[in-house]
Amino acid sequence: MTFRNELSDLDPRAREVLREIIVQHIDSGEPIGSRTLAKCGRFQLSPASLRNVMADLEDLGYLQQPHTSAGRIPTDRGYRYFINHLMQSRALTMRERETIDEEVGMVSEIDQVLHLAGSVISKLSDQVGVVFMPTLLQFAIRSMDFILIGEKKIQCVIVGVNGVVVNRIIDTRFVFTRDELEKISRYITAEFGGCTLDVIRRRLIRMTEQERALHDQMMQKTISLGIEAVNDVAPVDHELYVEGAASILNKPEFSDAASLRRTFLALQEKEKLVDILETCLSEDGLQILIGSESDFTQVHNFSIVARRYGSTSAPLGMVGIIGPMRMEYARMAPLVDYLSRALSRKIEEEQEQGT
Amino acid sequence: MTFRNELSDLDPRAREVLREIIVQHIDSGEPIGSRTLAKCGRFQLSPASLRNVMADLEDLGYLQQPHTSAGRIPTDRGYRYFINHLMQSRALTMRERETIDEEVGMVSEIDQVLHLAGSVISKLSDQVGVVFMPTLLQFAIRSMDFILIGEKKIQCVIVGVNGVVVNRIIDTRFVFTRDELEKISRYITAEFGGCTLDVIRRRLIRMTEQERALHDQMMQKTISLGIEAVNDVAPVDHELYVEGAASILNKPEFSDAASLRRTFLALQEKEKLVDILETCLSEDGLQILIGSESDFTQVHNFSIVARRYGSTSAPLGMVGIIGPMRMEYARMAPLVDYLSRALSRKIEEEQEQGT
DNA sequence: CTTGGCACTCTTCCTGCGCGAGTGCTAAAG
DNA sequence: CTTTAGCACTCGCGCAGGAAGAGTGCCAAG
Q: If you ran DSSP here, which 8-state letter would residue A243 be given?
C-alpha cells in the first residue's frame, strides 16, 4: 500500500476532522463515530458528510475501524500526522515545572538523580518513566577519591566534570592506610582530572609497563587501585531506570489481565528498550516513536516520548516516557522536554560550580 | 465463635487430611474435594468418610468452602495450624544458597545490599521481596569521611561499625578545601568513632554552645559540617525496598485485572507495610503472618514471611517476602531464614574485617 | 457538495439451560 | 461405633440465542 505525500493530501476540513477524532479518542479511549463527532459542534456538517470525510481518512491510512460497527480510531500514521502537523503543545503549569526542578535539584549522586528523574516524570505524566544512561567509559572526571571502608575494601568516589557523582566499592588486593589513600586521591585527581575513564584506564595500563612503576611501591599501589576503580565502573556499560510501571494499571487499553501481564513483562525485558534508546541517542531534540515505528513499541502498541539530556558537548543519556499510543502527546512532549532540559541545566550548573 | 485448643482437638487422621488438603491446594490453587483427596491414595478411606472428616475440620475453622458445590480451601487458621504443626521445611538447594551468598556478597553500600537482597529473594521465591531498614539514628559509626564534590557540595561517606556504608551528598553553608575536609574527616572519625548518629548529633550540638567553638574558625566549620551530615542522614527515618512486584502476575489468585490492580496499589502504599515490619522487628526468629493476622495482610489475603537481620547485638531490619496466603511455606521459610542469616553474617564479617 | 433515509453489520449484554462437581444426609453394612 | 454406598440437592460455569444499540455505506434528493 502506498500513500501520497502527507501534506498535500489533506484539505483543511479533513485535517480538522482528523485532529478532532484524535483529540477525542485520546481523551475517551473509545472509537469515535460520526454522530459523536457531529455533536461536538465544531463542524457545521451532518454525520453523513463526516462519514464521507472519515472514509477518505481511512482510505489514506490515518484512521481504522476496530470492527465494522464501531467508530474510528487513529492509526500509527494518524498519530504521526497529528504530532507533526496538528498538535499544539500545552504549556506546563507552574506546579509541574516546580516539581521537576525540585526533584532534579534534590540530589547529586547519579544513580539517585536518574531514579528521581524517572519517578517524577512518571508521576507527572501518569505513564511509565524511563531513564537511560549509556556507558560511563566516556565519562570525563573532575576528581577521584578513595575512602577506607574496611581492611581491603575501598570506596571510590568519582566526580565527573559535569558534577555527576559515581560511587563504587571495590575489593582491593592490597591493604591501604588512610594516609596512602589521601595521597593516592590527590595524585590521581591531579594527574587525570579532565580525562575520561577510558583514557585513564589506558594510561594506567601503559604506566604498569614502565620501569618506574615496578620499583616504586607506592606507585604500584596507586596504579593498581586506579585500575581496579576504573574497571569496576566500566563493566556497567549502561543503566536503565524504569519507574512507575504501576501507571499502566489505570490505562483502559490494558484493562484485561492478559495484556497487563504482557505489558509488565515487556517492561522487564530491558534489552530491547536499551536498543531503541541507544539509537535515539544520536539525535537531538524531542523524539516520539509511535507503535510500529520501533521494534519495542510495535508489539504492544506503545509509544515512546524521549529526549536526550546532558550538556550539548557531551550528551549523557535519554529520558522519557512509555505509554499506550493513545497518550496526551500535547502534554507529554513539553513534560519530557522540560525534564531533559532541567537535567541538562543541572548538569551544566554543577559543571560551572566545580571549576 | 470459639475454638478449642488447637493441639488437642485433632486426631492423627484429621491432621493428615488437613495436611494433604493444604499441600494439594498450595500446589494446584484449586479447592480440594473429597474425591480428589480419596484418589491421591494416601488414605484408605472412601470419599464419604473423608467428607465427614472435612466437615469436622470445617466446623473447627480450619477449612472453608468458597461456595456450596466447591471443594474446601484452608482458612487462615488452617494455614496457621499447618505451619505450626504439620509443615516440614524443605532444605535449600545448593544453587539457592550460592545465589543468595553471591548476591549478598557482591556490594557493600547499604542501599544496594538491601536492594539486591530484596531482588534475590523475590527471584528465588517467585514472590514479592521486601526489605526494611528502620531509622539510622541508632547507627553506630566507624568512620565518617567528607569528599569535595562541588564548591558547596560535599559527599559524606559514613561507615557503620557493622561495615555498612551510607552515602549522602550535602549542600553546605561554607566553602571547604580538600585539606580542610581531610582534617575534618580525621577529626570526626577519631572523636566520634563508635558513637551512634544520634549521640553524635547531640554532642555536636552541645559543642556549639561551648565557647571554644565560637572562636576557632576551623572548629566551627567542622561542627557545622558534622551537624549537616547527621541531619541529612536522619530525616530518612526508614527505607523500604519492595522488589519483584511483577511476580504476582503469575499467581492465579490475582488473575483478574481488578485484583491485580488492587494488589499493585497495596504494594505501593508502603506505610502499612512499614508498620507491620516495625512491630516484627522486636521479635527474633522467623515470623509468618497469615491473612487476618495483620492489618496489611488481611485485606488482600496476603501472607508475609519475614525475619530480622543484623548482628544479634544490633538488629538492623527485616527481610522477607509477601505473597498470596497460598504459598509454599515449606520453601519460603528456609529461603527467608537463609537470606537473613546471610545478611547478618555478611554484616558481622565486615564488622570484624574493619576492626 | 450536502443531507436524510435506510438496510446492513457487528458487538455487547442479558437470559435460560444443561452439565459437572461436590456436598450432606440417610440407611445399611462391617 | 465406624465406614460406605446411594441419592437428592446446590451452585458455578459455559454456551447458545435473541434483543438492543451503535455505526457504517450507499443512494437519491435537495
A: E
Beta bridge partners of A345: none
Closest CA to A245 of B243, B163, B283: B243
Alpha-carbon distance of A269 to A99, in angstroms, equals 30
Specify the pLDDT at position B306. Answer: 97
- Specify the residue for cell string 527505607: B239
**Could you tell me the CA-to-CA distances from A221 to A153, A200, A208, A234, B242 in Å, in that order?**
14, 16, 11, 20, 40
Distance of A72 CA from C16 C1′ (whole Å): 35
Phi, psi of B76 (to 5 degrees): -50, -50
* Beta strand pairing call for A239-243 and A128-133: antiparallel
Q: Which of residues 149-178 of B touch strand C (CB under 7 A)?
A: none
Say which amino acid occupies A172: T
Helix axes B197-209, B217-233, angle to 10 degrees: 150
Q: Residue B194, SS3?
A: coil
- CA neighbours within 13 Å on the CB side: how many for A339? 36
Given the DSSP bridges, would you call strands A287-290 and A302-310 parallel, antiparallel or unpaired?
A: antiparallel
Overall average pLDDT of the A108-137 stretch: 89
Span A217-258, pLDDT tens digits: 888 889 999 998 888 776 666 889 999 988 988 888 888 888
Whether the per-residue pLDDT at A315 is higher than 80: the answer is no
Residues 6+ apart with CB under 8 A from B234: B135, B136, B137, B197, B198, B201
Q: Against a cut of 0.70, is the pTM above it?
A: yes
Q: How many helices (H) and strands (E) does chain B have?
A: 14, 10
The half-sphere exposure of B240 on its side-chain side, counting CA atoms within 13 A, is 16
- For B252: left if phi > 0, alpha if psi spans -120 to 50, otherwise beta; the answer is alpha
Phi, psi values for residue B43, rounded to 5°:
-125, 135
Measured to protein CB atoms, the chain C nucleotides within 7 Å are 2-5, 9-11, 20-26
Does the pLDDT value for residue A335 go beyond 60? yes
DSSP states of B148-179: EEETTEEEEEEEETTS-EEEEEEE-SS---HH
A65 CA to D20 C1', in Å? 21
Residues of chain A found within 8 Å of residue B159, distances taken between Cβ atoms: 148-150
Neighbours of A186 (CB within 10 A): 16
Give the pLDDT confidence score for residue A208 in this predicted structure: 85
Helices (H), A73-177: 76-81, 94-105, 110-125
Measure the CA–CA gap between A131 and A43, rounded to whole angstroms.
42
Q: Do B157 and A155 touch (CB under 8 A)?
A: yes
Nearest nucleotide, C1' to the C-alpha of B50? D3
How do residues A141-178 score in pLDDT, each as one tens digit? 899 999 998 888 899 999 888 777 888 888 888 899 99
Chain B residues in contact with A255 by the CB 8 A cut-off are: 257
Distance between CA A296 and CA A263 in Å, rounded?
11
Report residue A241 as a C-alpha cell.
531506570
B48 CB inside 7 Å of strand C? yes
Q: How far is the C-alpha of A64 from the C-alpha of A67, rounded, in Å?
A: 9
Q: In Å, what is the separation between the CA of B72 and the C1' of C14?
A: 32
Mean pLDDT over each residue of chain B, to the nearest integer: 88
Strands (E) in chain A, as ranges, are: 63-64, 73-74, 128-133, 141-150, 153-160, 165-171, 239-243, 287-290, 302-310, 315-324
C-alpha cell of residue A84: 507533526
Subunit contact A143:B148, Cβ cutoff 8 A: yes
What is the Cα–Cα distance from A327 to A309, expressed in whole angstroms?
Answer: 22
Start-to-end Cα distance in chain B: 58
Judging contacts by C-beta atoms under 8 Å, the chain A residues touching residue B353 are 150-153
Q: What is the mean pLDDT of residues A43-47?
A: 85
Answer whether residue A4 shows pLDDT above 60.
no
- Reduce the DSSP state of residue A134 to 3 states and report it: coil
